[in-house]
Give the backbone structure.
Amino acid sequence: ERDGGYRTWKKDRWPDGPQGWLDACAEHGLLPGLWFPANTAFELDPPAAWGRSLASDGWGLSCFEGGFLEGFVEVLEHWYAQGIRVFKFDFADFGAATEPTRLKMLPSEIRSRNVTAYRQALAGFRARCPEAILLAYNGFEEAEFMTWTDRPVRRVIDPKWLEVFDTIYCGDPRPADVPLPDFWRTLDVYADHMVRFLHEGGLPLDRIDDCASMFGVAGTCYRRGSAGWRASLLLSLARGGRVHMTLGNLELLSEDDARFFAQAQDLFRGVPRICQPAGWNGVYGWEREHTTILVNPSLSRITCKLPRAGLSLGFLDGWGDLADQSIDLGPGAVALLTNRPGLKLEAPANDRLPPNLEEVEADWSVEGRSARATFVAPGGDLHFLFEQRDAKGLAVRTPIPDAGANWLGIEVAADGRPITVDRQDDRPIWSGMSWAYGVVRRLPRGSQVEVRMRSVDTSVATILPAVRKG
């Protein structure tokens, strides 16, 4: 309840309170967890003692003034005593200060005081409650990094947070700045990049929560249902977080899906390693003692050598061909290689990922945020795409608030007649898209094709259009 100080549950949803759920978790050996805003008034009317910590914007709660932090830790200990063992902290605001303090202290001093107080408070909580598992989510970074995947690696999170947190997450799934024919695969590439970004910025791989195994009906995961969940799960497990998170509507999984899930969990033991040796032409992956999973994040077929001998193909999503000591991977393909004999994890056929995509020559005319071209169709499926860039050549993300509004437009006509374009990205995308992708199926050879592309985003300086044959 908003006015319950994190102690009272919503009576319309929990008329008898949480005790029945807590007892059932204990009976079945499950460790229950709770999600908390770290120090913000999200869905909360702060108790009177916490009000003296509230910033003038009514959002952040100072950790070194008033009664918030002491009362908050008492809440955590209260639920620990009730059997809660996993604590997730989100929406931190370490710039929060009361108005008098804000007027007399530098922003850097305020952040430093908040961070020190919060870290000390959690250290004390862990000492008194040693079975607690603590997860850090949004707000613990010191610079924005989750929005793009084409910026240089830099340090954005202080590794000292790992003194109190078991893991730190790297961002909710969103499309990478890499166009691929399967929209769901770009979410996988995003998580791969973000884990590597934080790792190269100083965090151990096993302390990064990729938050990437997410499926269901909510807008956070773009209402994907269970589309492409198997490859996403394997990649998420392969990245090696100490705490592995699977979020969403688990009731969408069948009994066969559950067996796949169990087999996948059993595969990834030991310390993960990033697998990207020289000469792999852009293919990368994650490696363990017995298992390697590879990703081709490009629009072209790539051949690469195997990392070691004795590997067989245990899973394939997309097009792939294993021969001798090399493997061919089609655009967006994911392949799991293992030396465990007889292992075969089934993947549904993915007709969105062709064996190759060859560029089609077209007479392009590009003017700022729009482009057009004409060409003669080579026959078969045609893939139309464009990428958005700012004046510096960096990716520009455009939020897509609703489906069907053509925020990133692709219009195709053949022999003067409009043609339906299959758009997997035609959905609300809260995190934005820096590219658009559409497919026209089985266009007859020799058709005279006209294509128009445009972006409504005024921050875009130019777009980079392309047509490929699949």
Q: What stands out?
A: Residues 362 and 416 are 17 Å apart (CA to CA). Residues 107-128 form the longest helix (22 residues). The helical segments are 19-27, 48-51, 68-81, 99-104, 107-128, 183-200, 229-239, 255-267.
